[in-house]
Amino acid sequence: MKKHIVLLPGDGIGKEVINSAKDVLSAIAEEYNLTFSFETHEIGGAAIDLYGTPLPDTTLEACKQADAVLLGAVGGPKWDQNPSHLRPERGLLGIRKALDLYANLRPIKGFKNLLHSSPLKEEVVSGSDLLIVRELTGGLYFGTPSERRENGQIVVDTLYYSRKEIERIVDKAFQAARQRRGHLTSVDKANVLESSKLWREIVEEKKAQYPDVVVEHVLVDAAAMKLITNPSQFDVIVTENMFGDILSDEASVLTGSLGMLPSASLREDGVGLYEPVHGSAPDIAGKGVANPVAMILSAALMLRYSFQLDQEAKVIEDAVEAVLDSGFHTADLQVAGGRRVGTFEMTKLIVDYI
Amino acid sequence: MKKHIVLLPGDGIGKEVINSAKDVLSAIAEEYNLTFSFETHEIGGAAIDLYGTPLPDTTLEACKQADAVLLGAVGGPKWDQNPSHLRPERGLLGIRKALDLYANLRPIKGFKNLLHSSPLKEEVVSGSDLLIVRELTGGLYFGTPSERRENGQIVVDTLYYSRKEIERIVDKAFQAARQRRGHLTSVDKANVLESSKLWREIVEEKKAQYPDVVVEHVLVDAAAMKLITNPSQFDVIVTENMFGDILSDEASVLTGSLGMLPSASLREDGVGLYEPVHGSAPDIAGKGVANPVAMILSAALMLRYSFQLDQEAKVIEDAVEAVLDSGFHTADLQVAGGRRVGTFEMTKLIVDYI
Ligand SMILES: CC(C)[C@H](C(=O)O)[C@@H](O)C(=O)O
Ligand SMILES: CC(C)[C@H](C(=O)O)[C@@H](O)C(=O)O
């Protein structure tokens, strides 16, 4: 198998952890007789500095030709005061939309020996293993009009969805639930929003096609509570773009291992962009101390979702778990009696295990 | 001082806890030589059953004439399948809008001997004392168009704000911060939404008028994380309607005492509607076991915000604290070595203390 992968390091620690993913993928390629070719491009702040735009055409074209894209992280204080169209996150939003990466999957699962650093009590969080399926290319993020009116006296944004956009993400979530524990929680605000009412209707319509999946509807405010009071009740959560942004970040801190969480953003045909949930962490960038695990696990998701290499993905995931179980950890984590290592050493430990 | 108060019991345990508030207010009136007159009206499911609408004209007219309104709770499974305009929460949304109750204040503070039932570790949650100021009559909740198009193939909701609507809620929050610890966190999604950009600009403009308040901007996804990882970093949080709905419910479970949390919804002139944060709890309705504290503390907020009776409000709050400190609690709470009491007995204990 030959696959062409575009690497987008982006900004901050993105530039460091992307190399970890490449090293791990090279080890997998060697071990399992696969061919991965890599091509690196700029995005975000780095692209603004070099080309005056957060998403240069060359970057976008390369991504369109690729079998999959790995992204480090974008953003940093340097560009925070820029006008909207010159902000690093525009690059990220632009590529999601241009590649039609409508399905954002964020698996959240605790690591046994990290659970102690969760803000939640261990008995509350233990056993949590959930997947948030967030719609990523619609809703308030891309709806128009999004503008000021009457000389800035009025402002509007538009929460826009087509039935098709809702149907495809709901299907994705049902399929994911079927492959997991068969439980789907659809989150909306159907007591207020017309878009949520249509969302709920579509979930109800689709139910018949997935008789093996148990479906539940939860209002977004209630979901924000339940994630904290009883996170282990969830299997798959599906929701629209903005609710998904909030709830997936909320969920990401539950297990005390934000530096370990990967994400996948998929198109219908399986092409995908894979990135850590954490940001560019400008405060620790360039010091060689960043935790590469979220990036490495994102590469594992790429193998699973874009290349159907489920076994190879599992090898990476097992390697990460084994290295953590041996007590090795990066500076963002505390492991009693553990040994603190840098980005490079952590990567090497995982590569060696593979 | 003479004040006229409209009581809206609503549904479920609302009907029980509203009496507790009335009893406590009567005790305060007697003790401090005040005159409170009461008038009861229907809202929500109860109003649908009696009058075929969740917000009858007589109810609305009475509220318009009142100095303040106390509301129990609305909703229940009986009306869950009703069409939108016949759902209990429409009554609540309708009255907020009709009375222009744009400022929703939700103070969240842990009770010492309840903190142990927080889902968070005690060292994470202890010391938390925050106030969420939520814009309540704008944004996605009331913006138009909110409709289906092209035969249900498209759906839109509109996040609409006028500059004035943002200015008045931001002012309210600055004033609240000034009376508390002088710290204001404005929550938005300025990296995506045009409305958030205007929101952030207005907060920046207003800063000059409140030089004694320290202001910070946090993105809504980051705020959802920080509320869990470090809730005690917040003093006052101000945000738009939908973000406020999600974050205030998220915050309400942090201290382990949802049954204790009051809220105030205010108009510019001080008229207000006061209601518990919890819902109508149909599962325990009619059994005399509901926790009346959130409702009683809502009455205290009424004294403070609508009647400027700060001292009398404090008397109620102290009474609640003292009764809890003596180990009395309702069935929703666990207090080691405490004594479990019903709604009526809990109310009597608080009244007796006053
Ligand atoms: C950077 C930002 C625009 C982005 C989003 O809101 O989608 C981020 O928060 C995310 O969740 O990937
Ligand atoms: C009942 C519902 C419409 C309401 C809201 O979303 O505002 C409730 O959740 C609240 O927070 O008071």
TrEMBL record, chains A, B:
<keyword id="KW-0464">Manganese</keyword>
<feature type="binding site">
    <location>
        <position position="106"/>
    </location>
    <ligand>
        <name>substrate</name>
    </ligand>
</feature>
<dbReference type="InterPro" id="IPR024084">
    <property type="entry name" value="IsoPropMal-DH-like_dom"/>
</dbReference>
<keyword id="KW-0432">Leucine biosynthesis</keyword>
<keyword id="KW-0479">Metal-binding</keyword>
<dbReference type="GO" id="GO:0000287">
    <property type="term" value="F:magnesium ion binding"/>
</dbReference>
<feature type="binding site">
    <location>
        <begin position="76"/>
        <end position="89"/>
    </location>
    <ligand>
        <name>NAD(+)</name>
    </ligand>
</feature>
<keyword id="KW-0963">Cytoplasm</keyword>
<dbReference type="GO" id="GO:0003862">
    <property type="term" value="F:3-isopropylmalate dehydrogenase activity"/>
</dbReference>
<dbReference type="InterPro" id="IPR019818">
    <property type="entry name" value="IsoCit/isopropylmalate_DH_CS"/>
</dbReference>
<feature type="binding site">
    <location>
        <position position="96"/>
    </location>
    <ligand>
        <name>substrate</name>
    </ligand>
</feature>
<keyword id="KW-0100">Branched-chain amino acid biosynthesis</keyword>
<protein>
    <recommendedName>
        <fullName>3-isopropylmalate dehydrogenase</fullName>
        <ecNumber>1.1.1.85</ecNumber>
    </recommendedName>
</protein>
<feature type="binding site">
    <location>
        <position position="249"/>
    </location>
    <ligand>
        <name>Mg(2+)</name>
    </ligand>
</feature>
<dbReference type="GO" id="GO:0009098">
    <property type="term" value="P:L-leucine biosynthetic process"/>
</dbReference>
<feature type="domain" description="Isopropylmalate dehydrogenase-like">
    <location>
        <begin position="4"/>
        <end position="350"/>
    </location>
</feature>
<comment type="function">
    <text>Catalyzes the oxidation of 3-carboxy-2-hydroxy-4-methylpentanoate (3-isopropylmalate) to 3-carboxy-4-methyl-2-oxopentanoate. The product decarboxylates to 4-methyl-2 oxopentanoate.</text>
</comment>
<comment type="subunit">
    <text>Homodimer.</text>
</comment>
<feature type="binding site">
    <location>
        <begin position="279"/>
        <end position="291"/>
    </location>
    <ligand>
        <name>NAD(+)</name>
    </ligand>
</feature>
<keyword id="KW-0560">Oxidoreductase</keyword>
<feature type="binding site">
    <location>
        <position position="221"/>
    </location>
    <ligand>
        <name>substrate</name>
    </ligand>
</feature>
<keyword id="KW-0028">Amino-acid biosynthesis</keyword>
<dbReference type="GO" id="GO:0051287">
    <property type="term" value="F:NAD binding"/>
</dbReference>
<feature type="binding site">
    <location>
        <position position="134"/>
    </location>
    <ligand>
        <name>substrate</name>
    </ligand>
</feature>
<feature type="site" description="Important for catalysis">
    <location>
        <position position="141"/>
    </location>
</feature>
<comment type="pathway">
    <text>Amino-acid biosynthesis; L-leucine biosynthesis; L-leucine from 3-methyl-2-oxobutanoate: step 3/4.</text>
</comment>
<dbReference type="GO" id="GO:0005829">
    <property type="term" value="C:cytosol"/>
</dbReference>
<keyword id="KW-0460">Magnesium</keyword>
<keyword id="KW-0520">NAD</keyword>
<feature type="binding site">
    <location>
        <position position="245"/>
    </location>
    <ligand>
        <name>Mg(2+)</name>
    </ligand>
</feature>
<dbReference type="Pfam" id="PF00180">
    <property type="entry name" value="Iso_dh"/>
</dbReference>
<feature type="binding site">
    <location>
        <position position="221"/>
    </location>
    <ligand>
        <name>Mg(2+)</name>
    </ligand>
</feature>
<dbReference type="InterPro" id="IPR004429">
    <property type="entry name" value="Isopropylmalate_DH"/>
</dbReference>
<feature type="site" description="Important for catalysis">
    <location>
        <position position="189"/>
    </location>
</feature>
<comment type="similarity">
    <text>Belongs to the isocitrate and isopropylmalate dehydrogenases family. LeuB type 1 subfamily.</text>
</comment>
